[in-house]
Amino acid sequence: MSKFIYSLLIFSTLSLTALAQTKPKAAKDSVLYHGTQLGISLAEPLKSFFSPTWGSSVQLDVNLLNRFFPLIELGYAQAKLTNQDQSSRFDTKGLYFRAGINLPLATEGPNAENQFFVGARFGFSSFDYSISGGSFEETYWNDSYMRDFPDEHARATWGELLAGLRIQLWGPISLGWSGRMKTSFKIWNGAHSVPAYIPGYGRNQKPNYDLLLHLYYRLPDFKN
Questions:
Q1: Is residue 165 situated within a structural domain?
Q2: Which pLDDT score, from 0 to 100, does residue 28 have?
């Protein structure tokens, strides 16, 4: 599935770039505000059908000069992970926040309705988690024992680099997808353990890679 999405992204990117290059280069836009888009994530809810993780998020981005798209995003994620022999379990849920910007490399439409873009994000999450049946080794006698950690709390910050495509479907509605590379900056672990999964970031490893799909709606411009 991921190979198909990446192939579709590359094909659409090349098509949009070629289309943009065949048209005369327009003068830089002098209008500051071109509208606000509300985006709803579609990929995270779909993951619940084939993955032990689930989530959802909403995003607001503002079109400035048809060249800069600053944005904020608020999301929720949860995970229920087990090891290979099902002896231990990791459960977490929490909110996360992202802020960043998209920079279009190719656009079509008076309000950049169609665009290929690159971007960057800064993410933060503060979340609770629990570990059931964790296996530990006693350092002196080298004996193993089981222990639960039911009330752990952690925080994390990370960065993301991405490339994506947004295509207008009809009127104010558009669809966008992006491929992302993530790396953690700082993780404040729980009092007794290390979280295996970070809401908004994914599994506690670096780098992380992800594919996201968003449905966008251009909010009406309310003018006097």
A1: yes
A2: 66
